[in-house]
Design a protein that fits this description.
The protein is of the alpha/beta class. It is about 35% helix and about 20% strand. α10 (about 265) links the parallel β10 (about 245-250) and β11 (about 280-285). α4 (about 85-95) packs antiparallel against α11 (about 320-335) and α5 crosses α11. Bound molecules: pyridoxal-5'-phosphate. Pyridoxal-5'-phosphate (PLP) binds near residues 77, 135, 166, 220 and 285.
Length: about 425
């Protein structure tokens, strides 16, 4: 039974009303944006340069404080998998909030067990550890590798240059981008970075202390670089030969974004030997919770019990509320064939953008499905700002790249609309 139906039988609770009002300017008072910006100036740690003041969202659209509507194909950086204010998420949040929001991991809770089962069924034999974010999921993967290698004195992890794995000290140390590490030295020891898609470079970096190779199937923040099939199959063989774990960061490129559950399935489609490929652990987050924070690590058999009781944990991870929401999203994705939808929308987007290459400062297109990068001359932040002004929200990335990370239920009309905005604005 779908999680929403099962909950609805337990609790009678009306759906929360959709908030449709946009604040009206009050005579004599400054616009809301001015007030909010001054609150941020004064009270919020300025870790990021912010843009619009957003008030509400519905479907693939958001509205700012002036009542202006935007087509949101950034989805909060690949998070809002069902778009904004989706009934499945609203309903489940409301119902489960009236049943049990949190209970800690000292106890069993049904939805955590059921979500783990669904993830294992989608991925392969193994078990799942739950946490709250992408960084935490990668942190758990790194700890898992270290725990696995502890008895043999191995702890080094090889990652790719241009990768991004998060902002905690371990995931920052794992990340292959110097600019985000500056000022935080000394970093955690035990990470080596080698060129992405260069198998020989990985082989050359292996030492007697190496325990794992960790990578994104598609580098998202780095500028939408896709791993090649030869690299993935070669890495699997190499890591087996050296008794290393091959661990995967599917935080951005996973969750059906490529049209398949995990990006390696899409990359290896039709490639001989590709269907047998599986990493040893996968970090997940973002789209899994559709905006409600949740992270997860799938650990393949026979490594699923490397973390024994007391070896790793989190207060909030796998709460009944987070897991119920994640289950409701999975139900919706499957019921509405959203993997197929995003695959088709990705091809539509690729075709439209490819036709624009060589014009409007667009230099290339790469990616799959709902993780598509448009490369541009000059500063991608400037391009994103101009498109936002024109009503289209996208996300900048490194290496002159602008990312399209639409909700999985984006429509063909909305992709056409986005292409028209790109064409008329740049
Ligand atoms: C590939 C990848 N890994 C990890 C992270 C970190 O996730 P979070 O911001 O949820 O900690 C991100 C975030 O953008 C990501 O893209």
């Amino acid at each position: 039974m779908a999680v929403a139906d099962s909950l609805a039988m337990t609790v009678e609770s009306p759906l929360p009303p959709t908030i449709t009002a946009t604040p009206k300017p009050v005579a004599g008072e400054p616009p809301l944006r001015t007030t909010v910006e001054s609150l941020f100036d004064r009270y919020v740690v300025p870790t990021v340069n912010r843009g619009l003041t957003l008030i509400r969202g519905e479907g693939r659209h958001v509205w700012d404080d002036q009542g202006r509507k935007y087509l949101d194909l950034g989805a909060g950086v690949a998070v809002s998998s069902l778009g904004h204010a989706h009934p499945a998420i609203r309903e489940t949040l409301a119902l489960q909030a009236g049943v049990l929001i949190h209970c800690s991991n000292y106890y069993f809770n049904e939805w955590q067990g059921r979500l783990a089962q669904r993830i294992v069924e989608l991925t392969g034999p193994g078990k799942v550890f739950f946490c709250n974010s992408g960084a935490e999921a990668n942190e758990a993967v790194i700890k898992l590798a270290r725990k696995f290698g502890h008895a043999s004195g191995r702890y080094e992890v090889i990652t790719a240059t241009n990768s991004f794995h998060g902002r905690t000290m371990a995931t920052l140390s794992a990340t292959g981008q110097e600019k985000i590490k500056q000022g935080f030295e000394p970093l955690l020891p035990g990470f080596t970075h080698v060129l992405f898609n260069d198998l020989a470079a990985v082989e050359a970096a292996i030492t007697p202390k190496t325990i794992a190779v960790h990578l994104e199937g598609i580098q998202g923040e780095g500028g939408v670089f896709v791993a090649t099939p030869e690299y993935l199959l070669g890495l699997r063989e190499l890591t087996r030969k050296h008794d290393l774990l091959l661990t995967w960061d599917g935080v951005q490129c996973g969750y059906f974004r490529t049209g398949r559950w995990q990006s390696y399935e899409r990359i290896l489609e039709g490639v001989p030997g590709g269907e047998d490929f599986a990493p040893d652990a996968i970090a997940m987050a973002k789209s899994l919770g559709g905006g409600y924070p949740i992270g997860a690590v799938w650990v393949r058999e026979p490594y699923q019990d490397v973390f024994g009781p007391g070896s790793h944990g989190t207060t909030y991870g796998g709460s009944p509320l987070a897991c119920a929401v994640a289950l409701a999203i999975l139900d919706t994705v499957e019921r509405e064939n959203l993997a197929e939808n995003i695959r088709a929308r990705g091809e539509q987007l690729r075709a439209g953008l490819t036709a624009l290459i060589g014009t409007r400062g667009i230099t290339g297109v790469r990616g799959h499905g709902g993780l598509m990068g448009m490369t541009v001359e000059g500063d991608p932040y400037g391009v994103v700002a101009r498109l936002t002004q024109a009503g289209l929200i996208l996300i900048p990335a490194a290496n002159h790249t602008v990312r399209f990370l639409p909700p999985l239920n984006v429509t063909a009309e909305e992709i056409d609309e986005a292409l028209a905005v790109v064409e008329s604005t740049l």
